């Protein structure tokens, strides 16, 4: 029977240490939280600048809700698009140095809508093997031919581009890879896009707000500008609110508005969120002190960790993965940390490749140095005991 098979499949997840669990947080997003009835020090969130619970954003959201109400009432292209959405899109475009931006309800929707709008049957997508699932799913939805090149390997990408006869080509990459914390070679990718007449789509979910002057992201940090660039920024991570945007050439963004199904066929995001995001952009732009503190915490963690068997992966971003390898061992270490009051997620396949289970440590500007030292010392002790 179908249900029996499903139960057996769930049991198999348990056997392979792959069943996911959900915890319930009873306090606002912050390093110190109450979760499942326990007070914990958390290293889980992508709230890199500590803005999710910032009073200024909460106030802007309250003011927005008082004026605009709770919902938008329709899709953006019917009657659910408001003046504050226009203001947000214009501000986002200016902030990242693009002609125009389009605001999506989620980052997943931005990626799965944008890729099929740009390419289809007879076209080709060239994607880094460690791209986020939303980019993979967007590529599959497009029905274009998908080429996945070795992670961070421009030479492999060049070979794939050189042998392709597709009429349209799209290179797709994360800017900061969410499970490794490393940064893609963006300048080289743009050079290849120009040489082989391809689009270059960059998902800067984990770089926006953190990298570049004023937090303008990885593309700004690399000093890149081109009509070929399609820039995706997430607004639920460092920006502390919700949603995402796609920015680039004005004609490209107009085409996305006409063709991206995840934009056209969904209710518009509440306009009150746009009010909060406008406040967030101001805090990001003037957030150098937060970014400097965050960089200092990253450096501190890397100094304090003294691992012999586990591996701290190379990363200059707030994502600091500790590679353990075995699924069960990664879960056991996460449980041991939990028992000490430290909440660090164990990441296993299919989120990461087989044999690369890890702890994904996320640092934020809301952490303090003592928080980081506490985690580092606990990990050093646990590895010595294993």
UniProtKB/TrEMBL annotation:
Q: What cofactor requirement does the entry state?
A: pyridoxal 5'-phosphate
Residues in Aminotransferase class I/classII large domain copies: 39-379
CDD domains according to UniProt: KBL_like
The record's catalysed reaction(s) read: 6-carboxyhexanoyl-[ACP] + L-alanine + H(+) = (8S)-8-amino-7-oxononanoate + holo-[ACP] + CO2
Molecular function (GO) terms for this protein are: 8-amino-7-oxononanoate synthase activity
Question: Cross-referenced InterPro entries, in alphabetical order?
Answer: Aminotransferase_I/II_large, AON_synthase_class-II, AONS_Archaea/Proteobacteria, AONS_Proteobacteria, PyrdxlP-dep_Trfase, PyrdxlP-dep_Trfase_major, PyrdxlP-dep_Trfase_small
Tell me the residue numbers annotated for binding pyridoxal 5'-phosphate.
Answer: 107-108, 178, 206, 234
N6-(pyridoxal phosphate)lysine-modified residues are 237
- The Enzyme Commission number assigned here is 2.3.1.47
The alphabetized UniProt keywords are: Acyltransferase, Biotin biosynthesis, Pyridoxal phosphate, Transferase
- The record lists substrate as bound by 20, 132, 351
Q: In which pathway does it act?
A: Cofactor biosynthesis; biotin biosynthesis
At the top level, the lineage of the source is Bacteria
Q: Which HAMAP family match?
A: BioF_aminotrans_2
Indicate the family of this protein: Belongs to the class-II pyridoxal-phosphate-dependent aminotransferase family. BioF subfamily.
How this chain assembles, per its entry, is: Homodimer.
- Role played: Catalyzes the decarboxylative condensation of pimeloyl-[acyl-carrier protein] and L-alanine to produce 8-amino-7-oxononanoate (AON), [acyl-carrier protein], and carbon dioxide.
> NCBIfam families, from UniProt?
bioF
What is this protein called in UniProt?
8-amino-7-oxononanoate synthase
